[in-house]
Recover the amino acids of this structure.
């Protein structure tokens, strides 16, 4: 197989093992704001992967305006950051990710983020998790309300455009069903799945996935 010339990363559940924080914050927020009790299974099935606007629209239909949904999204993400800061031991990138970023930088291999997160969370990742060492904001495609949510490939199309890469030359690292579908529709040269969100057996059974990993140690073999 040809060498890959660029790497695109999802963030939540892919570089930061934060699915638990999203589950906690969705359950807290829906209870506090709407009096709705969600199970963990419901959150995993309906609330992990797409951006918040899509999640709220899928859940509530047309009950709320875009402005109200945007406000809900900001409130929910404040809950998420609070939940993450309550667990400082797990406020770190997945093992091997910092070393991989250093390797990509040293080799001159371009890389970017394509995340459904909104700007306040991106600031949180850049500052609290130290991503600013490797990423500037122009190499982070995040939810500004302009791009279709995953599983649409728009986030990856834009991320590749920003670093001047063709889809077939890109590795995409993803964890969620929606994200893997987006990477496949994008036409990624290789999809590497991280088994932090979606069951490993399900990932291994997907013929579109090149490899399933638990962390980024020894990632060099995929480049």
């Amino acid at each position: 197989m040809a060498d890959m010339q660029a790497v695109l990363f999802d963030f939540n559940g892919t570089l930061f093992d934060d699915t638990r924080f999203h589950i906690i914050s969705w359950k807290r927020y829906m209870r506090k704001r709407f009096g709705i009790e969600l199970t963990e299974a419901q959150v995993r099935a309906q609330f992990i992967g797409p951006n918040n606007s899509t999640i709220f629209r899928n859940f509530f239909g047309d009950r709320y305006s875009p402005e109200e949904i945007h406000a809900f999204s900001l409130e929910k993400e404040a809950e998420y950051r609070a939940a993450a800061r309550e667990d400082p031991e797990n406020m770190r990138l997945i093992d091997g990710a910092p070393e991989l970023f250093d390797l990509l930088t040293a080799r001159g291999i371009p890389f970017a983020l394509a995340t459904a997160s909104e700007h306040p969370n991106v600031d949180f990742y850049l500052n609290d998790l130290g991503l600013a060492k490797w990423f500037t904001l122009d190499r982070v495609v995040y939810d500004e309300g302009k791009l279709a949510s995953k599983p649409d490939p728009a986030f990856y199309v834009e991320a590749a455009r920003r670093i001047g890469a063709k889809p077939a030359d890109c590795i995409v690292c993803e964890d969620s069903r929606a994200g893997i579908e987006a990477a496949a529709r994008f036409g990624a040269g290789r999809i590497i799945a991280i088994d932090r969100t979606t069951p490993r057996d399900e990932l291994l059974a997907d013929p579109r996935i090149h490899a399933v990993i638990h962390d980024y140690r020894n990632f060099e073999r995929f480049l």
Summary: The domain at 19-88 is CATH 1.10.150.240 (DNA polymerase; domain 1). The chain has two domains: 6-17+91-222, 19-88.
